[in-house]
Amino acid sequence: MRKILITSNTSWFVYNFFRSAIVEFMRDGNKVFVLAPKDDYTQYLIDLGCIYRKIKICRSGINPHKEYQTLRRMYRVQRNVKPDVLLNFTPKVIIYSTIVAKFFHIPVVNSIAGLGSIFTEGGVKSMLGKLLLRLTQPMADHIIFQNPDDWEIYIKAKLVKKENSSLVHGIGINLKNFKAHASPDDGVVRFVLVARMLKNKGVVDFVHAAEKVEEHYEIRRLAGFDVPLYEFSLLGFVDEENPQGIPLARLLKWDNQTVVNYLGETNDVYGIVKEQDCVVLPSFYREGIPQCLIEACAMAKPIITTDNVGCRETVVHNESGYIVNPQSVLELKEAMIKMIELTHQSRLNLGRNGRKKATRDFCHLKVSRHYLSIIEKVSPHPH
């Protein structure tokens, strides 16, 4: 038995993106601790069987006193838990936790779920983040990447050696929990974007493209043509603390004044998405592999996404969905219209191809086995 300490900047992230692997860790006889800020998903982790430890992490700030308190808390938890291995997620955590672990000679496995704002935004914080990554990541025993683009960037920047790193296809998904489900053949084509409500997730582009689809069909309607029925929805939580966050007031305004509905946040993504005809993610964020697209594949939903790091790994263009250029509202609109104009059966066929890809690449058992093999490698002699 090993004691595995997982550290992240939200309990939400650990539960939503890594719980299937955690279950496999525990089935293998390991004890799992989670160090993360308390939020609405903390109790779900406890119910899952994790031993929870609380920490405060300022995700977007660099207040020296708050950062010191975060480091101090990490030090105390690592000292008291004495884990056999640390598994770290999210950029700031990866930096801080790696530094602290060296005081106790704890093996460190860092997971890169996208490069995030450190690599996509400029400014002092970005420069400092890159410097700290350069100083700390060579200290890690192993780094696991979700897409080949990020892996290559780290190797070229000499942040990691190839022999101390590896690649998996995302965080993985339990295919039994996300079964293929055909949308109703009722004449309405339903699109949904599932993500945090962030600008760089393409939420604004989705709304503008939906409005242009509406304009397209309104012109045809006025010209006397019969037009199809369609719906556009946003699903995900509001993250106003994030610099890219879209305020709730703006989402509600779209809900009232545009063709786009805001469905809010849910613990039952499957229950909502299973009725949709297409999942859309026009992201230009440095993704790992977006979990919402992995879930869409598993549920046999066609996908429209961007030719962006992580996103393009989920779709075979014209076989399981469509890939458009990032931040191209015009291309996104055209892809949506193309999806609407397909027959219901053709959309189902696209989705079936996506399900095959999920079975081949994204099964959580493959991912959890990979993590366990790395954990056993860096911590061959548990306490």
Fraction of residues in helix:
40-55%
For the largest beta sheet, what order do the strands appear in spatially?
Answer: 3-2-1-4-5-6-7
Secondary structure tally: strands: 13
Average of pLDDT = 91
Main sheet properties: 7 strands, parallel
Ranges with pLDDT <50 over ≥5 residues? none
**What does the oligomeric state look like here?**
single chain
Helix and strand pattern: EHEHEHEHEHHEHEEHEHEHEHEEHHH
Number of DSSP helices?
14
Beta-strand proportion = 15-25%
Radius of gyration: 21 Å
Please state the overall shape, judged from the principal axes of the Cα atoms. globular
Q: Report, as a whole number of angstroms, the end-to-end distance.
A: 8 Å
Structure classification: alpha/beta
Give the SSE map.
Layout: E1 3-7, H1 11-27, E2 31-36, H2 42-48, E3 51-54, H3 64-81, E4 85-89, H4 91-104, E5 108-112, H5 117-120, H6 124-136, E6 142-145, H7 148-156, E7 165-167, E8 188-194, H8 203-222, E9 229-235, H9 248-257, E10 260-262, H10 269-273, E11 278-281, H11 291-298, E12 303-306, E13 321-324, H12 329-341, H13 344-362, H14 364-378
Parallel strand pairs: 1-2, 1-4, 2-3, 4-5, 5-6, 6-7, 8-9, 8-11, 9-10, 11-12, 12-13
Helix pairs in contact: 1-2, 1-14, 3-4, 4-6, 8-12, 11-13
